[in-house]
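Dataset card, provenance and construction

Sequences and ligand SMILES were collected as paired inputs. For each pair, a complete structure of the chain with the small molecule in place was predicted and serialized as structure tokens. The example below shows a pair involving fe (ii) ion. Curators did not alter the output after generation; any descriptive sentences attached to a record were derived from the structure itself.
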Amino acid sequence: MRIAHFSDIHITADSSAIPWRAMLSKRIVGWLNLQLLGRKGDFREAASITSALVADLRELQADHILFTGDLSGLALDSEFEEAHRLLEPLLGSGRITGLPGNHDLYVPAAARAGTYDRLFGAWEKSDLADPPPIVRLLGDDVALIALRDSRPNAFHDSSGLVGADQLGRLEKTLSDPALEGRRRLLALHYGPRRCSGEPDRRLHGLRDAEALLSIAHEGGIELVLHGHLHNRFVLPAGDGTPITIANPGSATHSRYERAYHIIETGAEGIELSARRYDPDAGAFAAWEDAPGSGALPPPA
Ligand SMILES: [Fe+2]
Ligand SMILES: [Fe+2]
């Protein structure tokens, strides 16, 4: 089973095209971030790199594709529509699972308007009833479980939360007979650890990371896949985490590697490789010897 994992494409609207009414909210913080802290420049090529990514994914013909959130910059309808247009070749296949990031639920009004759900509901298909979590039973041997850990936040906060209810559902899901004998992969937006193995900051990280890792470890999860942190890394089990954590980083951020991961599961274990964007070729290519690639260590 071969799964391609990408994240954080951040399709971001041109500020001159943003309606002023849409700015009367936390969006003003995001907009200032874009203007003053250089984020606008960071994602200036997001649309063209996403096109190259989609072309690469179509050629790769993975068994399944996973997206772990942050399609947009400010959860604007125009950004979701553009992201939908770019990703459309992948969306109809039924072989893609996606979840929203905090930027996709940036303000309560965006969550209420439901544009994200309307355009991307198709990638939240679950093979078990009553999501979240979404459960995809892939082939005979893999279960991909995806959580919703993003929510609209106050001005100064960009943290995530799985929540007690969803943690309970996850625990129950992991003992479901339908998962028996399958390798279990867990997807979410927030990283339970930074690349150093330390937990992320309170205002930026996952509030219930410890509870999640403990339930996941107990329930036989072999690999955690996430986004949100834009720097790519693989944190092996034992290095401050009981389960290996793999984050492909942002696929489009100009100051990082602009990579995506390929996860291959087999009888012997799980292997990871990466592909990254080559700006000269305008295309993605194999990233030989990407740090952390190769056979992944099993849970500690
Ligand atoms: Fe992000
Ligand atoms: Fe995020």
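Derived descriptions for this record:
Residues 46-60 form the longest helix (15 residues).
The chain has one domain: 2-295.
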